Amino acid sequence: MPKRSKSNGEAADGRESDAAVEIVPFSDEELSHDSLGLSRDQIIGMYRSMMLQRRFEERAAQMYGKQKIAGFLHLYIGQEAVSTGSAEAIRIGEDSVITAYRDHGIGLALGMEPNACMAELFGRQDGCSRGKGGSMHYFSKDLRLFGGHGIVGSHIPIGTGIAFAHKYKEDGGVCLCFLGDGAVGQGAFHEAVNLASLYDLPIVYIIENNQYAMGTSVSRAFAETDFYKQADGYDMHGAVANGMDVFDVYRAMTEHVEMARNFQPSILEVRTYRYRGHSMSDPGNYRTKEELDSRKDDDPIIRLKAYIIERDLATNDELDVVDEEVKKVVLDSVSYSDENPFPELEEIYENVYAQEDYPFLN
Amino acid sequence: MATLQFREAIRAAMVEEMERDDRIFLIGEEVAQYNGAYKVSEGMLDRFGEKRVIDTPISESGFSGLGVGAAMSGLRPIVEFMTFNFSFVAIDQLINNAAKIRYMSGGQFGVPIVFRGPNGAAGQLAATHNTSTESIYATIPGLKVVSPSNPDDAKGLLKSAIRDDDPVIFLESEVMYGMKGEVSDADDYTIPIGKARIAREGSDVTIVAHGRSYWLGLETADKLEKDGFSAEVIDPRTIRPFDIDTVLTSIRKTNRCVIIDESNPFASISSEVAYQIQERAFDFLDSPVLRITARDTPAPYAKNLMDYYMPQVKDAYDACRKVMYVN
């Protein structure tokens, strides 16, 4: 595979042309599930996944209010099309995924058990990280979710190393490395992206641009707010997708994953929006109610639901059945977590080292 | 046995382990085409090729994190820092990621990785190139910290570090790279992490000294011997976990202890060891534990100031005499 060949959007001089980079909105003609090769079952599955993420987090927020959950809780609500469209575009369990602390959505989208996920938020022994990670640290070795990381930008070199290992082992896998817009300001991002391009690593850096790094809007934080343009500085492909449209995310991700399989790393900026605060303590005073409401009008779940009904892929009643089933799964995860014991105190010394007899000070 | 330089012993450990296990690779600045800034990796590119001996840009955070991700994926990276002073621009990767991912993931992902390179003072290099990092890394649960004092230990301990399933900070010394010593060439020669070595037996005072300070300890013991005193010299070899039991056994015999540690003194290895000694061997002590360290300042440039900054044999000798109440 020749280094740095561009799969599309290539201008005559071999450089990216900005004209090739645009947000492609939902369109009947261009983005139907047929044209994307998605079956009816896949569409319904994606709808269910998005509903599960939404309802799971709504319930988590409620449980936070009831003090069942403590610490930080960063909700993904509004961004579910990004996780769902991405998970659909990869070989789960063979490809790898890593993200920052807003990780419940991608965890559930990959197929993590809601019980284990909720129990982790509750800090219980059968949480997905044995109650030691909490909201920010979902991991699943089976699904190759490499975390759940709490320091902005810190996981991006790790994602690069995971891609390095895919190439080293020649196992055909790729790594999806999700990051927020705020992480673009960290040096670790730039170092990692440079290494990926230099070493031709099978990775897609997905910049989930939800417009705000905590309370700082992108325009207050970045001299260049078109994040896909970062790709140009590292001689890689960059593009934008509409994060409120699961089809557009899937379309773009499929293309970028294909590039990664051919050892062409790339940057995909996905423009999305989080409805809730940065974390539970954030009242969101930095944005207007009008702005928030206007973005909710563009809700990714409502959009997909409208599509499904319009195309007669399912009736409203049939989707209601899905909604009810998801609601039950989430409620069950809460009762499961309530009943699941807290970790034993001895557990504090487990998993610090692989060495069984490590002589801890006490 | 073979006579090897310190750097050759480290290279021998890496080469032997890489021959044994193709998951191991070496990555860092100038490790491949340049043959290593201090020639530790000389010849390794030719031997193993560019897939496994990998040059990086000046990008410590990037390549350290790359190592962590590769280790989580089942590879066994050796990450070389040109010096550990440069690890500070990557410290998030070491402290937040390498050390804690096993824990945060509830044991799902381990990070078997070695970060190695020269540590501590190396002459008139001024403040940013002379830091002793052992206490900074040793305070972090999840890391192991190793500091060999001689070529044989360097080889045996590095092979253990590479085989270890947890992240190991392996601290070498720029000024010791040329030091020669007898090194075992036994098949599969390893030295366990976490075991101190009684380098010299004695009965009047215990000297604890790791890394380069170990040699000050030996010189001090020689000097004391001329006065008719017998010093026991203990080389901890590993900083975390620290083999305190070997030190305590010695103190129960000598009832006195002097620690030599070229780190800055505050919250250092010497602080920790002295604390543990008073906690667990208080009744055996005939004198306060004393320590000889670098000054509580940044490292200076001027020669006379740098000499004054570093621990000296004379200081250690005086301290030993003091704990023995000899004027």
Write structural notes for this entry:
- The complex is a heterodimer of chains A (362) and B (327).
- Chain A is α/β, with parallel strands linked by helices and 362 residues long.
- Chain A has one domain (36-338): Thiamin diphosphate (ThDP)-binding fold, Pyr/PP domains (Rossmann fold).
- In chain A, 40% of the residues lie in helices and 9% in strands.
- Chain A is built from twelve helices and seven strands.
- In chain A, the strands form two sheets. In chain A, strands 1-2-3-7-6 form a five-stranded parallel β-sheet, sandwiched between helices. A two-stranded antiparallel sheet of chain A has the order 4-5.
- In chain A, helix 1 (40-65) packs across helix 12 and helix 2 (80-88) packs parallel to helix 3.
- The longest helix of chain A has 26 residues, at 40-65.
- The model of chain A is unreliable at 1-29 (pLDDT under 50).
- Chain B is of the alpha/beta class and 327 residues long.
- Chain B has two domains: 2-183, 3-Layer(aba) Sandwich (Rossmann fold), CATH 3.40.50.970; 197-323, 3-Layer(aba) Sandwich (Rossmann fold).
- Chain B is 36% helix and 18% strand.
- Chain B contains twelve helices and 14 strands.
- Chain B has helices at 6-20, 44-48, 60-72, 91-98, 101-104, 134-138, 151-163, 213-226, 244-254, 269-281, 303-309, 313-323, and strands at 2-5, 24-28, 53-55, 76-80, 114-118, 144-146, 168-172, 180-183, 197-200, 205-209, 231-235, 238-240, 257-261, 290-293.
- Chain B is globular, with a radius of gyration of 20 Å.
- The mean pLDDT of chain B is 97.
